[in-house]
Amino acid sequence: MKFNRTTISLVILALGLTGFVYFNEIKDQGFDITSKIGKKEEKTAKIFTFDTKDIKTLTIETDKQKISFEKTEKNTWEMTQPEKHPASDAAISFLVNLFTQAENKVEIPFTEEKRQEYGLVESPFQIRWILGNGDEYEMILGKANFDDTLIYAQVKFPDSLEAKQNIFLVSKSFQYAIERDFSEWKAN
Questions:
Q1: What is the percent of the chain where pLDDT is above 70?
Q2: What's the rounded Cα separation, in Å, for the pair 43 and 130?
Q3: Peptide bond connecting 82 to the previous residue in cis, omega within 30 degrees of 0
Q4: Dihedral of alpha carbons 147, 150, 151, 152, sign
Q5: Contact of 52 with 132, CB cutoff 8 Å
Q6: What's the pLDDT tens digit per position in 21-42?
Q7: How far apart, in whole angstroms, are the C-alpha atoms of residue 157 and residue 129?
């Protein structure tokens, strides 16, 4: 198979231009087109900065129940409402650990229109907790996002913090953690 001189010249010219564009336009401007494998992800800020050991009381409200817990002097949890009973350490730990894992990936400025849009106005899912220093937090859980992987949550921070009340996208695990059957909150 014989190639025409013009065809060979055009192939060489095309390869030359490709190399020129790569070295002068892409590589020199800092575009990284190499594999991202093995590179560390950027760390995102956490929504909550307190230590979970500092939580002293916890109140959970759903459409079915309102349950309150208090940390005892022995550093164990006790249900105080609707009845007095030792609390399930696993159920409380699962919920409390979600606070330290909550990342501030998407923060939406707080407006009444956004509250309505994201299902936060008449939400049956609320979590309130008080730290040992008296700081009081509240989280209202709303609708799921478009791909049903996260949920919208309105967070009310204590007055002692300079953080504004905002809407965040958080893990659906918060909803799963509080939608437990009442018996699962009790220690066996």
A1: 86
A2: 27
A3: yes
A4: negative
A5: no
A6: 777 766 555 554 554 444 445 5
A7: 11
Reduce the secondary structure of the chain to three states and give it as a string.
CCCCHHHHHHHHHHHHHHHHHHHHHHHCCCCCCCCCCCCCCCCCCECCCCCHHHEEEEEEECCCCEEEEEECCCCCEEEEECCCEEECHHHHHHHHHHHHHCECCCEEECCHHHHHHCCCCCCCEEEEEEECCCCEEEEEEEEECCCCCEEEEEEECCCCCCCCCEEEEEECHHHHHHCCCHHHHECC
Whole-number pLDDT of residue 182: 82
Q: Are 85 and 97 in contact (CB under 8 A)?
A: no
User: Which is nearest to 63 in space by CA: 130, 116, 122, 129?
Assistant: 122
The string of pLDDT tens digits covering residues 40-95 is: 455 567 778 888 888 898 898 888 888 888 888 888 888 888 888 888 888 888 88
